[in-house]
């Protein structure tokens, strides 16, 4: 979990510094959920949110529930085969939508659509074009969240397939609360 937390922190920092419209803060959360189970993914999301909130991005505190939703769902969706081949794109939608509903409400109602993300300018453009703030935040976040989660899931799929069964045995003889 500590390693996955560090992955989240580094990814979030890179996205923040480069002002990317994606977040890169859920790779470790998803990896932890896939390897050890949803509770571990949720823990990695909380720890990285706290650390990032204290050190580099105060907005991270407020978005911790989104990471927890991602951690919870990622393990179950992976175990059910939603991140494999033809089901990948639909599985990522299933992973993305619940967190996007929460994150767009947080962005719209707590911050007026302006956060540390590089996509905040798009929210403001849509809002000034006449779309409501919550709708503007949702439209932008569903696109950026989906892209972010797709990249994260692909990275985790490649990583977990390379780790193989040996790691599963190390993580409790294949009997952990994990999903591999």
Q: What does this entry look like structurally?
A:
The structure is a single chain. By secondary structure, the chain is mainly alpha-helical. The protein is built from eight helices and no strands. The model has no long low-confidence stretch (mean pLDDT about 90).
In short:
By secondary structure, the protein is mainly alpha-helical.
How is this fold's topology laid out?
Blueprint: H1 2-18, H2 27-36, H3 38-55, H4 59-62, H5 64-79, H6 88-111, H7 120-128, H8 133-170
Helix pairs in contact: 1-2, 1-3, 2-3, 2-5, 2-8, 3-5, 5-6, 6-8, 7-8
Number of domains: 1
Q: How much beta, percentage-wise?
A: under 5%
**Estimated helix fraction:** over 70%
**Total of DSSP H or I helical runs spanning 4+ residues:** 8
CATH class: Mainly Alpha
- Quaternary status of these chains? single chain
Radius of gyration: 16 Å
Order of helices and strands: HHHHHHHH
Number of strands: 0
Distance between the termini: 16 Å
Give the biggest sheet: none
Mean pLDDT: 89
Point out poorly predicted stretches.
Answer: none
The CATH topology label is Arp2/3 complex 21 kDa subunit ARPC3
Structural class: mainly alpha
Taken from the alpha-carbon principal axes, the silhouette is: globular
| CATH architecture designation | Orthogonal Bundle
């Amino acid at each position: 979990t500590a390693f996955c937390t560090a992955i989240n922190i580094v990814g979030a920092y890179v996205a923040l510094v480069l002002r990317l419209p994606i977040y890169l803060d859920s790779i470790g959360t998803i990896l932890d959920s896939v390897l050890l189970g949803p509770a571990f993914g949720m823990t990695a999301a909380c720890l990285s949110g706290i650390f990032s909130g204290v050190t580099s991005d105060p907005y991270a505190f407020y978005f911790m529930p989104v990471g927890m939703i991602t951690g919870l769902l990622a393990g179950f969706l992976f175990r059910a085969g939603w991140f494999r081949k033809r089901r990948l794109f639909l599985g990522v939608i299933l992973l993305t939508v619940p967190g996007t509903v929460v994150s767009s409400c947080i962005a719209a109602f707590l911050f007026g659509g302006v956060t540390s993300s590089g996509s905040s300018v798009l929210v403001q453009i849509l809002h000034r074009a006449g779309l409501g703030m919550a709708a503007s935040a949702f439209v932008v976040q569903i696109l950026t969240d989906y892209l972010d989660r797709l990249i994260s899931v692909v990275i985790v799929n490649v990583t977990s397939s390379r780790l193989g069964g040996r790691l599963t045995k190390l993580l409790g003889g294949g009997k952990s609360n994990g999903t591999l």
